[in-house]
């Protein structure tokens, strides 16, 4: 690591001293020098027998260090497809041209990196010079909102599939989704559910207005992530309520959302009070209980599993039932303080729980 650190920082005097005192080095030393454009350090290391490999060229290309790459290649350093793809990743067209003109191999990953990072001119050049591409070129352009890149790729017969619409929906790129729709790209069946999960109301509105039917996953994903505006929109657009909407919000700890949906007629059942304790959401348990939500033994069991003694105490103080699963959950997770409290307050089946999990 001493030689690596010296090469990384370009400290040739330290590297020389380290080698004079038999400090070991390896190919990572040359790679570190190349990555940080320390050509003098790389030259000295190579001239004094330090090994190198494809990573030297790869890191030089990634940083756009053409002089370093030229030296390495002129002195026999190997390279591979990652030299081109790393040059494309950072938009280093000059490096990429040199590599290609000197026989460096490339593959679809070069186009992918160019598209993913919005390097349109570089993508044009590699495509015009025969670099292959595939469906991932379009999907990564869509993911990062590079509409100009997507247009070029599609107009030049790059294949695409429903991952374009899915990634556009996930990342909230309405213009990308619209372009894909307008140009015949297949639409993914789950774009509404992923948009709801990520909180992209604009995607939901556009997709629903253009043929994607609402479904229960819109409620579930939005409720779990706390996207109240999306839940409200779905309700206004006629999506029927069901009990799991409340339990999903309870699991995520979204009290305001539960209050709103309950006020607007969403039903709930014991699963709401069973899900809230899993992550210690005491205020949700309180609200649900005070407003008539049923609970059962799963409420206490969930509190024990998550080691939420405050939730368990509240539940028991308000006559929530419990059974052997409370002690069993506490025992299996090693929650000794909660287990002791449960035992002292006459939780059933404590001895059975100990017997199954091991005597103390």
Summarize the structure in short.
The protein is mainly α and 360 residues long. 67% of the residues lie in helices and 0% in strands. The longest helix is centred in the first third of the chain and has 10 residues, at 54-63.
Structure commentary:
- The chain has 360 residues and is an all-alpha fold.
- 67% of the residues lie in helices and 0% in strands.
- Mean pLDDT is 96; it is low at 355-360.
Set out the fold topology.
Layout: H1 2-9, H2 12-20, H3 27-35, H4 39-47, H5 54-63, H6 66-74, H7 81-89, H8 93-101, H9 108-116, H10 120-128, H11 135-143, H12 147-155, H13 163-171, H14 174-182, H15 191-198, H16 201-209, H17 216-225, H18 228-236, H19 244-252, H20 255-263, H21 270-275, H22 282-290, H23 297-305, H24 309-317, H25 324-333, H26 336-344, H27 350-357
Helix pairs in contact: 1-2, 1-3, 3-4, 3-5, 5-6, 5-7, 7-8, 7-9, 9-10, 9-11, 11-12, 11-13, 13-14, 13-15, 15-16, 15-17, 17-18, 17-19, 19-20, 23-24, 23-25, 25-26, 25-27
């Amino acid at each position: 690591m001493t030689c690596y650190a010296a090469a990384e920082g370009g400290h040739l005097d330290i590297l020389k001293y380290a080698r004079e005192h038999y400090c070991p080095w390896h190919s990572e030393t040359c790679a570190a020098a190349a990555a940080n454009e320390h050509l003098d350090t790389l030259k000295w290391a190579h001239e004094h027998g330090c090994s190198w490999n494809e990573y030297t060229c790869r890191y030089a290309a990634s940083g756009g260090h053409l002089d370093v790459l030229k030296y390495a290649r002129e002195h026999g350093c190997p390279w591979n497809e990652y030299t081109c793809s790393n040059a494309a990743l950072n938009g280093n067209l000059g490096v990429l041209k040199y590599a290609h003109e000197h026989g460096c191999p490339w593959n679809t990953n070069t186009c992918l990196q160019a598209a993913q990072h919005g390097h349109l001119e570089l993508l044009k050049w590699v495509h015009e010079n025969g670099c292959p591409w595939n469906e991932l070129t379009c999907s990564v352009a869509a993911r990062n909102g590079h509409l100009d890149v997507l247009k070029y790729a599609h107009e030049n017969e790059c294949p695409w599939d429903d991952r374009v619409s899915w990634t556009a929906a996930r990342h909230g790129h309405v213009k990308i989704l619209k372009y894909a729709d307008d140009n015949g790209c297949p639409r993914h069946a789950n774009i509404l559910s992923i948009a709801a999960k990520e909180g992209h109301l604009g995607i939901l509105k556009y997709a629903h207005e253009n043929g994607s039917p609402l479904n229960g996953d819109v409620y579930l994903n939005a409720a779990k992530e706390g996207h109240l505006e999306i839940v409200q929109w779905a309700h206004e657009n006629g999506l029927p309520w069901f009990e799991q909407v409340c339990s999903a919000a309870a699991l995520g700890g979204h009290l305001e959302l539960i209050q709103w949906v309950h006020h607007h007629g969403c039903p709930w059942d014991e699963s709401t009070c069973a899900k809230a304790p899993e992550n210690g959401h005491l205020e949700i348990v309180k609200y649900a209980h005070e407003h008539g939500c049923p609970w059962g033994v799963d409420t206490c069991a969930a509190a024990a599993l998550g080691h939420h003694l405050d939730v368990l105490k509240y539940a028991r103080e308000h006559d929530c039932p419990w059974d052997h699963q409370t002690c069993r959950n506490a025992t299996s997770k090693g929650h000794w303080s909660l287990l002791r409290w449960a035992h002292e307050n006459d939780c059933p089946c404590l001895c059975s729980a100990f017997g199954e999990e091991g005597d103390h």
